[in-house]
């Protein structure tokens, strides 16, 4: 399978500080690749290197086979970017903003007119076509930025925190539009803090911490790598069992308690559920709720980033 | 084949520069800092220089034209990049397939067009309201074209430092532009200036544009035509190359 983006030992230093440290990954045609990491982990710096805003200190990357250092212009013809802290031109109208981006990408006006109209319709901006961007809300401006990126007909779309701080409606529209375009073959590089967004949209995610990639896999596979963080949650009515009774159930590695709700961490949730029910029968206890929870992407994220912190402390 | 690809790239980059020019004209020509420092400044300087002094009106026309060109052509460049940085539009602009050189060339063109067009106003006023005449039209055109290109390149160079807002860069640009005004033979012929100023005058590109425009209006000048043209070309190339270097160096600062 051909890699659309391939990062090879991509590194960026600011003085002595290594913001991105020999990062390597491949992104394939039609993927939505999530790039997750805490603040200051190197996500935006990586995006800025890939999109030509800053030069790598070491290493390189290719976009559709074009080296970002040797052929920066050619590599940028394949991409469109919605940067995290970017804005549209406030004194231009919605339509002028779209046409400006299309012209900067060398797309003839007559070729993008229909597509621009379609995108405005898709993202709910058709009626605001003639309005100055200045009068749009933050959510609408973000939708316009996405429109302006898509009107250039990119093969790869870089989205840096695209829904951060947006209203529910704009968030939904943006996610839906990106998913629809991805189904038609668009490759998406998505950086986000929002784990549910990453879980919902990404076919594969990489977790970056302190400039290094600590995990890369599909979200499901990442969840399974920390199966020890699965847990059985049980809530008792009336009397509750002793803490030791629960901890001594075979397969339970840790028990936490919050009021009447106990959380039993285990790699064997089925066996533990059976044992909890037996214990309740034996002791004459009432169970109001019993459920099995797989680790969320947030747990995965915390697991990998905290592991890094521990390593750093050692 | 390679030649064809190069021509195609050049054409795309030139197109990119023209798109930048169109954007800048739409967005920045009527911004208050451009109007204040580009249009009002030369008018007030003219009034301050002319009023109450025993000099003929036609003798100040070449200086007025040069000064208007200086302020207008160099007013757009210092505004564009700092404004784009503070408005958060710069990062998206430099991630398009238009090279930084082409973006800067577009900025230079914006200053050039603004300066060259507005310099027509003092020329027409001078010709209509005073006894001034143009002795050498091609030289006047050359002076205005070369001067506008040079001053616009200087404006773009001044925009390179990563400032927190456009006002800081406008301040810097005035720190450079105002002193040069007084040592470049605008208000007083260079030959009549103090010796220290005569030493500094050759370092100012404004001196050479001023010489060309004065000669075009049938007046004498300190520098000959050939030297003025040569120096304007050299200064323009130097300013543009330095702009490319410094803008590249600082492009990601303050995003």
Overview of the structural elements:
The complex is a heterodimer of chains A (314) and B (255). With 314 residues, chain A is of the alpha/beta class. Helix content of chain A is 38%, strand content 29%. Chain A has a six-stranded mixed β-sheet with strand order 6-7-8-3-9-10, with helices on both faces. Chain A has a four-stranded antiparallel β-sheet with strand order 2-1-4-5. A four-stranded antiparallel β-sheet of chain A has the order 12-13-11-14. Chain A is elongated. The model of chain A has no long low-confidence stretch (mean pLDDT 90). Chain B is mainly alpha-helical and 255 residues long. Helices cover 76% and strands 0% of the residues of chain B. The longest helix of chain B has 30 residues, at 57-86. Classes of the chains: A alpha/beta (314), B mainly alpha (255).
Mean pLDDT reading of chain B? 91
Which chains make the largest contact? A-B, 31 and 25 residues
Helix content of chain A: 25-40%
CATH architecture tag of the largest domain in chain A:
3-Layer(aba) Sandwich
Rounded to an integer in angstroms, the radius of gyration calculated over CA atoms of chain A is 24 Å
Shape of chain B: globular
- What is the H-and-E element order of chain B? HHHHHHHHHHH
The total beta strand count of chain A reads: 14
* Helix and strand element order of chain A: EEEHEEHEHHHEHEHEEHEHEEHEH
Give the total of beta strands of chain B.
Answer: 0
């Amino acid at each position: 399978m051909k890699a659309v983006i391939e990062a090879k030992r991509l590194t960026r230093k600011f003085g002595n500080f290594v913001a991105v440290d020999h990062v390597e990954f491949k992104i394939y045609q039609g993927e939505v690749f999530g790039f997750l990491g805490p603040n200051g982990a190197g996500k935006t710096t990586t995006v800025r290197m890939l999109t030509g805003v800053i030069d790598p200190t070491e290493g390189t990357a290719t976009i559709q086979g074009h080296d970002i250092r040797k052929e920066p212009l050619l590599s940028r013809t394949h991409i469109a970017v919605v940067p995290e802290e970017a804005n549209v031109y406030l004194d231009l109208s919605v339509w002028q903003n779209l046409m400006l981006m299309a012209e900067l990408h060398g797309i003839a006006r007559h070729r993008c007119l229909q597509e621009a109209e379609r995108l405005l319709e898709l993202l709910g901006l058709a009626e605001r076509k003639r309005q100055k961007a200045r009068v749009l809300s933050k959510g609408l401006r973000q939708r316009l930025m996405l429109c302006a990126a898509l009107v250039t007909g990119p093969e790869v779309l870089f989205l840096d925190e695209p829904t951060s701080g947006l209203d529910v409606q704009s968030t939904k529209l943006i996610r839906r539009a990106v998913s629809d375009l991805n189904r038609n073959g668009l490759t998406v590089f998505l950086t986000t803090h929002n784990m549910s967004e990453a879980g919902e949209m990404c076919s594969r995610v990489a977790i970056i911490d302190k400039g290094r990639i600590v995990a890369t896999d599909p979200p499901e596979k990442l969840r399974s790598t920390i199966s020890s963080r699965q847990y059985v949650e049980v809530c008792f009515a009336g009397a509750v069992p002793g803490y030791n009774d629960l901890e001594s159930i075979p397969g339970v590695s840790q028990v936490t308690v919050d009021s009447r709700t106990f959380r039993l961490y285990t790699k064997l949730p089925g066996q533990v559920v059976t044992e909890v029910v037996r214990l309740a029968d034996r002791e004459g206890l009432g169970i109001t709720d019993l459920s099995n929870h797989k680790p969320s992407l947030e747990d995965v994220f915390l697991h990998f980033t905290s592991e890094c912190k521990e390593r750093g402390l050692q | 084949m390679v030649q064809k690809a190069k021509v195609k790239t050049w054409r795309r980059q030139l197109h990119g520069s023209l798109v930048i020019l169109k954007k800048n004209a739409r967005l920045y020509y009527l911004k208050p800092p451009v109007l204040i420092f580009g249009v009002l400044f030369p008018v007030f300087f003219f009034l301050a220089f002319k009023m109450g002094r025993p000099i003929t009106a036609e003798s100040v026309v070449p200086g007025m034209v040069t000064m208007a060109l200086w302020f207008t052509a160099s007013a757009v460049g210092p505004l564009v990049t700092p404004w784009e940085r503070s408005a958060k539009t710069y990062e998206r602009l430099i991630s398009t397939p238009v090279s930084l050189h082409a973006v800067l060339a577009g900025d230079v063109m914006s200053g050039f067009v603004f300066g060259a067009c507005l310099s027509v106003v003092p020329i027409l006023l001078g010709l209509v309201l005073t006894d001034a005449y143009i002795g050498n039209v091609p030289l006047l055109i050359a002076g205005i074209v070369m001067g506008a290109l040079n001053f616009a390149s200087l404006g773009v160079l001044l925009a390179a430092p990563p400032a927190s807002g456009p006002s800081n860069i406008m301040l810097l640009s005035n720190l450079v532009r105002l002193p040069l005004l007084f040592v470049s033979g605008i208000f007083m012929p260079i030959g009549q200036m103090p010796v220290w100023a005569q030493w500094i005058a050759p370092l100012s590109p404004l001196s050479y544009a001023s010489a060309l425009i004065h000669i075009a209006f049938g007046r004498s000048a300190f520098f000959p035509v050939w030297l003025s043209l040569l120096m304007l070309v050299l200064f323009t190339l130097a300013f543009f190359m330095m702009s490319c270097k410094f803008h590249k160096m600082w492009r990601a600062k303050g995003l």
